[in-house]
Amino acid sequence: MHLSKLRRVGLLVASAALIAGMAAACGGDDDTDSNGNGGETATTVSVTIPEGAPVIDQDKLKFVPGEMKVKVGEKVYFTNSETALHTVDINGENESGNMKKGDVFTFEFPAAGEYKITCAYHPQMKATIIVE
């Protein structure tokens, strides 16, 4: 095969891989992190959320509710109700790994303060947790 044909085939394969990776980050079932490095996944075991427990849901590309107050050491439950792949980043650190639809991630805030919650894949998703 001629060298320029090989390059075109290589570019087509690379382009297809890039498009597939982008589609996975916006709703696929891929377990790669935002760098495509096979990120960790959130817990997939069945989790029972106690009645009245603080829950923040990832739905319609938002954290719901967008603000919450909890006590130091209280367990907060993060759920993903949609097909888009999400993360729970707390003050810029990915704590949850990749979360698929139905996944639940829990986090206990160790100290009082204001914590910023974001999603690595969807920067418009923001929430604040105030720990007292």
What is this entry, summarized?
The chain is an alpha+beta fold and 132 residues long. It contains one helix and nine strands, in the order H-E-E-E-E-E-E-E-E-E.
- The name CATH uses for the topology is Immunoglobulin-like
CATH superfamily: Cupredoxins -  blue copper proteins
Count the E strands.
9
Total of helices: 1
Strand order of the largest sheet: 3-9-8-5-6
Roughly what is the average pLDDT, rounded to an integer?
A: 78
* Proper CATH architecture: Sandwich
Kindly provide the radius of gyration, computed on alpha-carbon positions and rounded to a whole number of angstroms.
18 Å
Number of domains: 1
Output the structural class: alpha+beta
Compute the separation of the termini in Å: 67 Å
Briefly, what CATH class? Mainly Beta
Question: Largest sheet, if any?
Answer: 5 strands, mixed
Would you list the SSEs in sequence order as H and E? Answer: HEEEEEEEEE
- Low-pLDDT stretches: 1-24, 27-44
Shape: globular
What share of residues are in beta strands? Answer: 25-35%
Helix content estimate = 10-25%
Describe this structure in words.
The protein has 132 residues and is an alpha+beta fold. The chain has a single domain, classed as Immunoglobulin-like, CATH 2.60.40.420. The chain has 1 helix and 9 strands; from the N terminus they run αβββββββββ. The strands form 2 sheets. It has a 5-stranded mixed β-sheet with strand order 3-9-8-5-6, with no helix packed on it. A 4-stranded mixed β-sheet has the order 2-1-4-7, with no helix packed on it. Strand 1 and strand 2 form a beta hairpin. The longest helix is centred in the first third of the chain and has 23 residues.
